[in-house]
Design goal:
By secondary structure, the chain is α+β, with helices and mostly antiparallel strands. It is built from 5 helices and 3 strands, in the order αββααααβ. Helices cover about 35% and strands about 10% of the residues. Helix 1 crosses helix 2 and helix 3 packs across helix 4.
Amino acid sequence: MLRKLEKRSHYHLRGAFDHVMLAAAGLATEGHRHRLIDDRGNVCDVEHAAWTAGDARRYLAGLITELLDAPHGYLLPFEALARALQGGRPVARFGDPTGGLGYGPIDRGDGLCPPADAVQIARRRLLPLVERMHGEHGFEVGP
């Protein structure tokens, strides 16, 4: 149950990761479905096309390798990643009202910019999940 239902939500990634993990284990051979519901009864249904166990394992291995072995992360949180996937440019400030003390990425006082290859990162990390989502997920893929 969500307080506010937004079509492009990081909560969709929970359903996508549930599916890819189950597929990698050979337990979700026919796809997956998740549903987001808010406190007003609004519903957002998303279907996930099936992964083969091999494809799911390769995706997860690539993601884990990138996250452990390559620079990543704090300058490319969810909203910036989704924006890059649309073909937009991620912004350097992410609107954290707590100045980095609350939930989310740490506000960088050093003025670092988002990575120059944000679109490529989004295509590696997010696109394989989005390509398998069908329904009201709100993600758009740009050129």
